[in-house]
Amino acid sequence: MRPLLGPGDNHLHYLQRHFATKITARREKILLRGAPAENVRAVEIVMELVNITRRKGAITVADIETVLR
User: Fold this and answer.
1) Using one digit for the tens of pLDDT, what is the confidence trace for 14-31?
2) What are the residues facing 26 on neighbouring strands?
3) pLDDT in tens, 46-64
4) Whether the Cβ atoms of residue 59 and residue 3 lie closer than 8 Å to each other
5) 10 Å Cβ neighbour count for 39?
6) Given pLDDT bands bounded at 50, 70 and 90, which one contains residue 2?
7) What residues does 43 pair with on adjacent strands?
8) Which residues are CB-neighbours of 49 under 8 A, at least 6 positions away?
9) Structure pTM?
10) Is 67 in contact with 19 (CB distance < 8 Å)?
């Protein structure tokens, strides 16, 4: 989970700025609270970032920006 969230949860905070959905991490879970349509989009983004993290071992802000586009 740590490689996905980034140092000091920086990646999580970066994602949070791009969604109206509230994104929080609790233990090994990522929780989303917001409008259903916004949650669906956020889940798609987070799942893609999880896949990249599994492949590469870590993600960067550039990876997040690419997925957001």
Assistant:
1) 999 998 889 999 888 999
2) 29
3) 999 999 999 999 999 999 9
4) yes
5) 17
6) confident
7) none
8) 4, 11, 15, 59, 63, 64, 67
9) 0.86
10) no
For tokens 């989970």, the residue is 1
Q: In this predicted structure, what is the pLDDT of residue 28?
A: 86
Cα torsion angle, 21, 13, 11, 4, sign: negative
SS3 of 12-61: the string is: HHHHHCCCCCEEEEECCEEEEECCHHHHHHHHHHHHHHHHHHHHHCCCCH
User: Measuring CA to CA, which residue among 28, 58, 32 is closest to residue 45?
Assistant: 32
Q: Spell out the residues 6+ positions from residue 30 whose beta carbon is closer than 8 angstroms to its own.
A: 23, 24, 46
45 and 68 Cβ atoms separated by less than 8 Å:
yes
